[in-house]
Predict the structure.
Amino acid sequence: MQAQDIIILINEKKLDKPSKLLFISGMQTLRKIAYHHSSTTNKRTVSIISHLDTTILNLYQDSKRPREFWVYLGEKKVGRVDIENDSLLEILGVEKPYNNEF
Protein backbone atom coordinates (compact mmCIF):
# COMPACT_ATOMS: atom_id res chain seq x y z
CA MET A 1 0.00 0.00 0.00
CA GLN A 2 1.29 3.43 -0.94
CA ALA A 3 1.05 6.64 1.09
CA GLN A 4 -1.37 8.08 -1.45
CA ASP A 5 -3.73 5.16 -0.74
CA ILE A 6 -4.28 6.16 2.89
CA ILE A 7 -5.81 9.07 4.77
CA ILE A 8 -4.26 10.23 8.03
CA LEU A 9 -6.15 12.33 10.54
CA ILE A 10 -4.59 13.84 13.65
CA ASN A 11 -7.29 14.84 16.12
CA GLU A 12 -9.74 14.62 13.19
CA LYS A 13 -7.71 17.01 11.00
CA LYS A 14 -6.77 15.52 7.63
CA LEU A 15 -3.10 15.74 6.69
CA ASP A 16 -2.09 16.94 3.25
CA LYS A 17 0.32 14.81 1.22
CA PRO A 18 3.60 16.44 2.43
CA SER A 19 2.43 16.29 6.07
CA LYS A 20 1.31 12.68 5.65
CA LEU A 21 4.71 11.65 4.27
CA LEU A 22 6.45 13.50 7.11
CA PHE A 23 4.26 11.72 9.67
CA ILE A 24 4.93 8.30 8.14
CA SER A 25 8.66 9.00 8.15
CA GLY A 26 8.54 10.07 11.80
CA MET A 27 6.64 6.97 12.88
CA GLN A 28 9.27 4.76 11.25
CA THR A 29 11.59 5.72 14.12
CA LEU A 30 9.33 3.87 16.60
CA ARG A 31 11.45 2.02 19.14
CA LYS A 32 11.74 1.00 22.73
CA ILE A 33 13.20 3.81 24.82
CA ALA A 34 14.60 3.25 28.29
CA TYR A 35 12.30 4.28 31.12
CA HIS A 36 13.22 7.69 32.53
CA HIS A 37 10.74 8.51 35.33
CA SER A 38 8.29 10.65 33.42
CA SER A 39 4.65 10.38 32.48
CA THR A 40 2.43 11.28 29.56
CA THR A 41 0.48 14.39 28.71
CA ASN A 42 -1.22 15.93 25.66
CA LYS A 43 -2.90 13.06 23.80
CA ARG A 44 -3.15 13.09 20.00
CA THR A 45 -5.48 10.62 18.30
CA VAL A 46 -4.23 9.47 14.91
CA SER A 47 -6.56 7.68 12.49
CA ILE A 48 -4.92 5.84 9.61
CA ILE A 49 -7.60 5.01 7.07
CA SER A 50 -7.24 2.69 4.08
CA HIS A 51 -9.75 0.96 1.85
CA LEU A 52 -9.25 -2.16 4.04
CA ASP A 53 -9.63 -0.77 7.56
CA THR A 54 -8.91 2.01 10.03
CA THR A 55 -6.13 1.91 12.61
CA ILE A 56 -6.23 4.22 15.61
CA LEU A 57 -2.99 5.25 17.32
CA ASN A 58 -2.84 7.34 20.44
CA LEU A 59 0.25 9.49 20.81
CA TYR A 60 0.98 10.95 24.24
CA GLN A 61 3.61 13.63 24.60
CA ASP A 62 6.18 12.90 27.28
CA SER A 63 5.84 15.12 30.36
CA LYS A 64 9.55 15.98 30.44
CA ARG A 65 10.72 15.57 26.85
CA PRO A 66 8.44 17.46 24.43
CA ARG A 67 10.03 15.79 21.40
CA GLU A 68 9.23 12.31 22.70
CA PHE A 69 5.87 10.62 22.18
CA TRP A 70 4.58 7.39 23.66
CA VAL A 71 2.72 5.42 20.98
CA TYR A 72 -0.25 3.22 21.82
CA LEU A 73 -2.29 0.91 19.63
CA GLY A 74 -5.52 0.71 21.60
CA GLU A 75 -4.47 0.21 25.22
CA LYS A 76 -1.16 -1.43 24.33
CA LYS A 77 2.00 0.68 24.38
CA VAL A 78 3.99 -0.21 21.28
CA GLY A 79 6.98 2.10 21.77
CA ARG A 80 8.13 5.68 21.67
CA VAL A 81 9.30 8.06 19.01
CA ASP A 82 11.69 10.99 19.28
CA ILE A 83 10.60 13.66 16.82
CA GLU A 84 13.56 15.72 15.65
CA ASN A 85 11.76 17.39 12.74
CA ASP A 86 10.26 20.73 13.82
CA SER A 87 7.69 20.61 11.00
CA LEU A 88 6.36 17.29 12.30
CA LEU A 89 6.17 18.73 15.83
CA GLU A 90 4.10 21.56 14.40
CA ILE A 91 1.79 19.05 12.65
CA LEU A 92 1.36 17.30 16.00
CA GLY A 93 0.45 20.61 17.63
CA VAL A 94 3.49 20.96 19.87
CA GLU A 95 3.94 24.53 20.99
CA LYS A 96 7.28 26.26 20.59
CA PRO A 97 9.93 26.32 21.89
CA TYR A 98 10.77 22.69 21.23
CA ASN A 99 13.18 22.37 24.13
CA ASN A 100 14.51 18.99 25.17
CA GLU A 101 12.72 19.30 28.51
CA PHE A 102 9.80 21.30 29.86
Observations:
- The first strand starts at residue 7 and ends at 10.
- The mean pLDDT is 88.
- The longest helix spans residues 17-27.
